[in-house]
Specification:
single chain, 196 residues, mainly alpha, two-stranded antiparallel sheet, 6 helices, 2 strands, 51% helix
């Protein structure tokens, strides 16, 4: 196969070491050897996910910061951080309605602790009457839950009419048996401060 001869350099092309318009002319070409394929591939290789202690510590710190922000937002009742069962203005209304009053259910846990302590007393009569008193108290708590549920549904119907969500009564009843300081989202109203 015939090869074409290389074109001769023009006579007026500047040679190396001379200046052209005040700029020194350097060697032609890129001035370095072309890297081999293996060198190019080695230069491109890097882990997809950095596996360093600093990167892991940074990711863990970011995750902890996001969790803390979500926890604070949920405790404050921020709709953005609430689970689906707590979202919406009607659920907030129910929470405020329940938190504004005192409910017998708040005393269930302390009453159970008292009964457990009474079982350690070696007098059968005290143990028996402690259990009887607890069951009577639980019946009153159930009655309070039913009344709270009815009152909440009635108040929600007055405020929203036919657009009342389902499950508000049960939501109110379940919140009423939690101790006030353990409720999530945290109570946003004081006792006696009924929502409007």
């Amino acid at each position: 196969m015939a090869k074409t001869p290389a074109a001769p350099a023009p006579n007026d092309a500047p040679s190396e070491g001379t200046t052209l318009n005040g700029v020194p002319v350097g060697p032609t070409g890129k001035g370095r050897a072309t890297p081999s394929r293996a060198e190019q591939e080695a230069a491109r290789k890097r882990p997809l996910v950095p596996d360093t202690k600093e990167a892991k510590a940074r990711a863990r710190a970011d995750l902890n910061a996001q969790r803390e922000k979500a926890r604070v937002g949920m405790a404050a009742g921020d709709d953005k951080y609430l689970p689906a069962r707590d979202k919406g203005p009607q659920r907030k209304f129910v929470r405020d309605f329940v938190d504004a009053g005192f409910h017998l259910g708040e005393a269930v846990m302390p009453a159970m602790v008292v009964v457990i302590i009474a079982t350690f007393v070696p007098v059968v009569g005290i143990q028996y009457w402690a259990f009887v008193a607890l069951w009577i108290f639980i019946l009153f708590v159930i009655g309070d839950m039913v009344i709270t549920s009815i009152r909440v549904k009635r108040a929600a119907k007055e405020k929203w009419g036919d657009r009342v969500e389902k499950g508000l009564g049960w939501y109110a009843a379940m919140r009423s048996i939690q101790m006030r300081f353990l409720r999530l989202p945290k109570p946003q109203v004081k006792r006696g401060q009924r929502p409007v």
